[in-house]
C-alpha cells in the first residue's frame, strides 16, 4: 500500500456537530486545511438552515474560501434542491446520503430508505446533466443507533441500486461509531467494488484506527477524517465523533503509507480548530504530539 | 483466536499516574474489578514511598482487598527489596521492569539498563527460591520519549538475556504511547517467543486498539489494559495513557474472542474509577456505551 487518499471533513461534518461558529472562522479553517497538502476537503453542506443552522452560511463560506489548486472540494446535499445550490456555487463533486436503516433515514431525512433511493436516482441524473459527479454515502452501514446491527447484505443491495442508477462513488458511514474490525471485514466482503469506495469512521468507541487498519488490509485506500476529531456524537454527549485526521496520518506515515499531507501543518490546523470551537478536541496526536517529538532528557 | 487473557492494571499502573487516592478507594476498585470475570490483576507495586507516594499504602491495600478465587494477582517491584516485600505480602507473581533505552532506565531507575539487568538476574533467583515467578517488563519497547525509536534488536537482546537468567514471562511496555502497528510487527518479528509474551499498550496517539489487532494477528493473546483508561501520560499533560479495558473487551467480544469478562460489570468498575479519581476518563465505551446499547427511536 503506497498511497491513501484522505478526505478532510472537519469543515462540514465536524463543524455541523459543534456549536455554530462564524463564517470567517470556517473560512480560516478551510484555508488552513487547504495548505496542509490534503487533496480532498468536504467543504460545506447545502441544507435547510432550519434543519442545520451550523451550515446556513454555506454560500458565504464557500465564496470566501481559497480554492487551492490540487485540492478537490466537495459539498454534501440532502436532496436535489441542495444539489442545485451546490452546483450553482461551483461545486462539481456532490455527496448525498441515505441510511441503510429505515429508522435512521426517517429521523435524518423524514422519509423511508426506499423513498430516499428514488430521490437519489433523480438527483444523480440532474447532477450528471450539469457535469458533476455524485458520491452516495450509505449512513449507518456498520450499525444503527436505533435498530442495532445492520445486515451487510442490506447495505450491498443499496450499493447495487445506486450504482445501477449511476452513482460515481460510494462511501460507507460509521454514523455513530458502531464500526469494529469485524463489521468492516463483513461489510467489505459483500459490497460491490465496481466504483471507488471510501470509508468514514468515527472513533466513538476507540476502534477508529483499528477499523482503518482492517480496511487497508482489505484493499481500501480512501478514508474520511476530521481535523482534531472535530464533531461529536449526537447520541452520546461528550463522546468522540469522527476519527482525527492527524491520528490517521500519523499512523499511516509511520507505516510508510503516503498521504501527501504535512503532519506539522495539519497539527497547526488542529490547533486552529480547537481555538475556533473553544474546546479541547479528542485527538491524541494533537495532545501528545507525534511519536517522533522527543522530550528533553535533562 | 478463541481466547485472550487480559491483565487489568488500573489499580497499579493506572492509579500510580493519577493524584493519590485513599487506600479504601483502592480496595473498592480492586474488589469491583475482581467481580468482573477478569482473570489477572496487577494489584499494587512495592516501591519506595518517596519515589511513588501513590503506592505507599500497598501493604494496607493488599491486606484489605478480597482475593477472588480464579484471579491471578501480581505486584510490580523496582528491585529485590521490593520483591521481598511483595513475597512477604503473599504475592507469587512478581513483575520487574527494565527499559530498553538507557536514558529512560536512568530516569526511571537511576541506573543503566545493563546494571538493571544484573539486578534482575539476582532478583529472579531470589524470587524463584521463594517459590514465586518473575515477569520482566521491557519498558520503552516501542520507542523512548528521550531517545526516539528503539531498535527491536536491542529489545530482543534484552529478552534473550532475561530468559537466560530464568525469567518466567516477558512483557513489552509501550511506556509513552509510541507503539504503532508497524512497530508492533517489527518487534514481534525479532523477539524470542520461548516464554509467554504480554503486550502493554497505551492509547496516547489513538493506536491502542490497532496495535492490539496487529498483535492478535501475529499470535499474541495476552494484553494489559486499564479500567476506564485510568492513568495519564507523564510527558504530555492531558493525554491518554493505558488503553481502556472496556474498549479492548468491547472490540474483542465483537470479534468473537472470549476474555471471561462481563462488560457490564467492567463498565460499573469504570464508573467507580471515575468517581474515585474525580475526573472524566478517556474511555469511549464508558462514555458512549457499547455498540449494542440502542437509542429509543421516538
TrEMBL record, chains A, B:
Keywords, sorted A to Z: Lyase, Metal-binding
Protein name: Hydroxymethylglutaryl-CoA lyase
InterPro entries, sorted: Aldolase_TIM, HMGL, PYR_CT
Disordered: region residues: 1-22
Species: Rugosimonospora acidiphila
Family: Belongs to the HMG-CoA lyase family.
Gene3D superfamilies: Aldolase class I
Residue spans crossing the bilayer: none
One annotated GO molecular function: lyase activity
Domain Pyruvate carboxyltransferase: 4-267
Amino acid at each position: 500500500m503506497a498511497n491513501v487518499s484522505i478526505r478532510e471533513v472537519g469543515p462540514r461534518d465536524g463543524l455541523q456537530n459543534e456549536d455554530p461558529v462564524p463564517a470567517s472562522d470556517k473560512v480560516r479553517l478551510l484555508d488552513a486545511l487547504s495548505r496542509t497538502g490534503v487533496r480532498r476537503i468536504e467543504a460545506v453542506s447545502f441544507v435547510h438552515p432550519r434543519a442545520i443552522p451550523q451550515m446556513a452560511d454555506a454560500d458565504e463560506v464557500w465564496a470566501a474560501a481559497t480554492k487551492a489548486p490540487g485540492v478537490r472540494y466537495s459539498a454534501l446535499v440532502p436532496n436535489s434542491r441542495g444539489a442545485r445550490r451546490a452546483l450553482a456555487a461551483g461545486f462539481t463533486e456532490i455527496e448525498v446520503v441515505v441510511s441503510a436503516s429505515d429508522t435512521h433515514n426517517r429521523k435524518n431525512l423524514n422519509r423511508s430508505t426506499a423513498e430516499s433511493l428514488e430521490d437519489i436516482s433523480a438527483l444523480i441524473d440532474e447532477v450528471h446533466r450539469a457535469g458533476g459527479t455524485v458520491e452516495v454515502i450509505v449512513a449507518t452501514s456498520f450499525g444503527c443507533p436505533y435498530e442495532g446491527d445492520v445486515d451487510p447484505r442490506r447495505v450491498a443491495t443499496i450499493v447495487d441500486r445506486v450504482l445501477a442508477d449511476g452513482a460515481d462513488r460510494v462511501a460507507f458511514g460509521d454514523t455513530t461509531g458502531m464500526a469494529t474490525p469485524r463489521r468492516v471485514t463483513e461489510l467489505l466482503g459483500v459490497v460491490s467494488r465496481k466504483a471507488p469506495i471510501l470509508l468514514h469512521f468515527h472513533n466513538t468507541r476507540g476502534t477508529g484506527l483499528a477499523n482503518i487498519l482492517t480496511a487497508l488490509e482489505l484493499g481500501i485506500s480512501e478514508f474520511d477524517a476530521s481535523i482534531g476529531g472535530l464533531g461529536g456524537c449526537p447520541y452520546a454527549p461528550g463522546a468522540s465523533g469522527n476519527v482525527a485526521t492527524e491520528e490517521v496520518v500519523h499512523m499511516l506515515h509511520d507505516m510508510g503509507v503516503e498521504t501527501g499531507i504535512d503532519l506539522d501543518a495539519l497539527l497547526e490546523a488542529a490547533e486552529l480548530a480547537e481555538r475556533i470551537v473553544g474546546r479541547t478536541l479528542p485527538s491524541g496526536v494533537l495532545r501528545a504530539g507525534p511519536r517522533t517529538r522527543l522530550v528533553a532528557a535533562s
